[in-house]
Design brief:
Radius of gyration: 26 Å
Number of helices: 2
Number of strands: 27
CATH superfamily of the largest domain: Phage tail protein-like
Strand content: over 45%
Shape: elongated
Helix content: under 10%
CATH architecture of the largest domain: 2-Layer Sandwich
CATH topology of the largest domain: STM4215-like
Length: 393
């Protein structure tokens, strides 16, 4: 489960103290996370200078355990933050919510354990160095791990984003006039294109948009089932266009079929022996110099099947094309972190039969590799140094 609390894609709301600067936004994709269009650039040139953004009202973190964002340091990146004196930045989210902030030599995710706070009142990043450096920051996410659910949500989000950007208005069914909120059906003046029972459709006039699934039809009149927008229209329209909408779903075994569809399936995860079983990880150094300690998490390869189905071969081919384009990116986002995905076998075309498959489909087998926390974290206290003098006579 996750929510994006800050995109870091604009200078709006950011201020800088003397010695710091809110420089602008970056457009280079290699330094942008979350498939956003921009990331934030800030600069520091003195110890104690800072950049700040205040949130009013404060952002609730109740129900979330981690905060993740992506960051890159132009000159101060390091990969060996093993004690608090190694850090060159601090980040705080309000009074008493201050942490040391690691920055690396590559643009990568940084995760902070926020299980002991309930709100984010501000973001303030403070320099602990006295010379020039620039940070690129992107894509702030609050999350709590719920695997494999989060993996399905991440892949579904990536696929739906691609559908929205490229296929929203590609397949026009027809145009309608004089629709009234609460109508249980829509009627076309002539035989419409593409539409059939179980079709997911989008109705829009450019101002309002709603989605429905066709339950049945009587010639050119089509009725809705209770999926998506429900059994009746949500808005009134003077004129509206109707388009076929590709559905991407998972975990809908108990509902009616939706077409054309991209269905994600699979619950099997293979433990990959990548890290040592006795390795420990330290994370989230607080300003009081305490730190979290836990055994390192486990790498799991999650196996999934992706089915592309439709009553129409052209629409099935389009669904397959969508999947190929998304898989070709080789990654998607899970709780603010990049998750790598790859083909795990040859895609198969499955002919319809009378026993199990009533529709043709293209099936992909893929795997996603992700590291999961499997151990409880313990916050290590600050060690006190005791000096004893012993005299031997």
């Amino acid at each position: 489960m996750n929510t994006v609390f800050e995109n870091f894609d604009s200078v709006t709301g950011w201020t800088a103290s003397t010695g710091a600067v809110v420089y602008g936004v970056n457009d280079i994709k290699d330094f942008i996370a979350g498939d956003l269009s921009h990331s934030l650039i800030v600069g520091f040139n003195a110890t104690g200078c800072y950049v700040t953004k205040i949130y009013s009202p404060a952002i609730s973190t109740v129900g979330y355990k981690e905060l993740t964002l992506h960051v890159w340091s132009r000159l101060k990146g390091a990969d060996d933050n093993e004690k608090y004196t190694d850090f060159v930045y601090k980040i705080d989210f309000g009074s008493g919510k201050e942490y040391y902030f690691p920055v690396h030599t590559t643009f990568t995710d940084v995760t902070i354990d926020i299980s002991d706070i309930t709100t984010i009142d501000r973001i303030r990043i403070t320099s602990l160095h006295d010379d020039l450096d620039y940070l690129v920051i992107s894509y702030g996410v609050l999350s709590v791990d719920e695997m494999p659910y989060d993996i399905f949500v991440g892949l579904q989000t990536q696929i739906n984003k691609y559908i929205t950007e490229n296929y929203s208005t590609k397949y026009l069914v027809g145009s309608l006039t004089s629709l009234t909120v609460g109508d249980l059906s829509i009627t076309f003046a002539s035989s419409p294109s593409w539409i059939a029972r179980y079709a997911k459709i989008m109705i829009t006039d450019g101002t309002h948009t709603e989605y429905h699934v066709i339950d049945k039809h009587d010639r050119n009149t089509f009725y809705f089932n209770d999926l998506y927008g429900g059994t009746s229209l949500l808005y009134s329209y003077t004129t509206a266009n109707v388009y076929i909408s590709f559905a991407c779903e998972f975990g809908k075994y108990e509902t009616e079929i939706i077409l054309p569809s991209i269905v994600l399936m699979g619950m099997i995860a293979e433990n990959m022996q990548i890290d040592s079983d006795i390795q420990h990880d330290l994370d989230t150094w607080k300003s009081d110099h305490t730190v979290n300690d836990s055994m390192t998490g486990k790498w799991f390869k999650h196996m999934m099947m992706i089915d592309c189905e439709s009553w129409n071969v052209e629409l099935m081919s389009e669904a397959s094309s969508i999947v190929k384009k998304v898989l070709g990116q080789l990654y998607f986002w899970v709780n603010g972190k990049k998750c790598h995905i790859q083909y795990d076998g040859v895609p198969a075309f499955i002919e319809p039969n009378d026993i199990a498959n009533n529709l043709p489909k293209v099936q992909y087998t893929v795997s996603a590799l992700i590291k999961e926390s499997t151990w409880d974290k313990v916050r290590l206290p600050v060690l006190a140094t005791t000096v004893n003098t012993v005299s031997i006579q």
